[in-house]
Amino acid sequence: MKAAICILLFALVGYIQARINYDDVLEAEFELFKVEHEKSYDNEYEEQLRLQIFKDNKKLIDRHNKRYVSGETTYKMGVNKFTDLTQEEFKRLMLTSLNTNHSQEGFDYTYNPSAKDSLPSSIDWRSSGAVNPVKYQGRCGSCWAFSAVGSLESHYFIHKKRRVSLSEQNLVDCTRGYPYNNYGCSGGWPIEALKYVKDNGGIDTESSYPYEGRNDYCHYKRYNIGAQISGIVQIQSGNEDALASAVANKGPISVCINVDSNFQYYRSGVFNDPSCSQTVNHCVVAIGYGTDPVEGDYWLVRNSWGENWGEDGYIRMARNRNNQCGIALYPVYPLV
Question: How far apart are CA 125 and CA 302, in angstroms?
């Protein structure tokens, strides 16, 4: 009798497994995704639309990860809070519009590494406490402000031995239009943000001028200043060796990169994509570098998409691969 029941149970399990298809699994994953990322939608139409987008994106992720397992690519993808967005929506909401004809002028010095410098094989400024926790820019193309602030917070800690969280919203609101010509949530350049901080005599603290993720009027208050800078240093454009020297000897550096569609789903590993364009559309902070024994040289990059993206908010990007994704094109840092 027991043998008959076992046979029946095995047959039933086999039947159920045969009836469950890939789409059923994806629908179950979508339900978990909504709970994990606290997603809710306005109506049934939107729910079904987001479900279909999630399915399409998850299939792309699964195909890529099969290639990762077989050693055909160096990084893994995963589901995150952006998996219910189309690539076009993601670009519109999260990336910035950068005019690459913009004149990168207004810096005070050019960083010239010494030929005699012997650089460490790796560096991670988090280990010395010089990097603040990862922040989240929200659905606003203000990465340039987070890039400038991220570098400034670190340099302030390195030189003043004080940890401070500074206001990205101050930059979003107060550098739009002449003379800095940034566009708030529609884009901007870190160098212009740092020019403002220098000209203005400082930038407010995060607590006094909290982030809103939208354009607002400028309400900077001098008595809320959290940091000041005396100048801006530019690193030779396109020179990864100079960038590595600056990261090792000076501290975290504001850089801008190209983000392609795969970047949206990055989970772990060294992001190495030879097809990555050098037309930059996102700004981040290079906080270190190193070498993975399997996947090669990388830059350690702090993003502004929250701690639940990538490797706890960070990405390792291919280094010494012909300036992949344009990472060494527009590097700057503040003098504190």
Answer: 11
DSSP state of 329: S
Helices 44-69, 22-36: axis angle to 10 degrees equals: 110
**Residue 82 domain-assigned?**
no
Which member of 258, 262, 303, 323 is catalytic? 303
Q: Are residues 68 and 141 in the same domain?
A: no
CA–CA distances in Å: residue 6 to residues 1, 10, 14, 15, 274:
9, 6, 12, 14, 54
Residue 270, φ and ψ in degrees, nearest 5: -95, 115
* Residues 61, 104 within the same domain: no
Start-to-end Cα distance in the chain: 81
Q: Give the three-state DSSP class for 201.
A: coil
Q: Is the pLDDT of residue 11 over 70?
A: no
For the chain, state the CA radius of gyration.
Answer: 23
48 plus 99 within the same structural domain: no
Residues 94-151 have pLDDT tens digits of: 998 777 666 677 789 999 887 767 899 999 999 999 999 999 999 999 999 999 999 9
User: Does residue 79 lie within any of the structural domains?
Assistant: no
DSSP codes of every residue in 39-70: ---SSHHHHHHHHHHHHHHHHHHHHHHHHHHT
Catalytic-role residue among 282, 283, 323, 325: 282
Is position 234 within any domain?
yes
268 found inside a domain: yes
Question: Are 245 and 283 contained in the same domain?
Answer: yes
Q: Which residue has the tokens 């801006």?
A: 232
Q: Which of these is catalytic: 64, 140, 143, 272?
A: 143
CA 235 to chain centre: 21
CA distance 44 to 231: 54
Catalytic-residue membership of 282: yes
Is 143 known to be catalytic?
yes
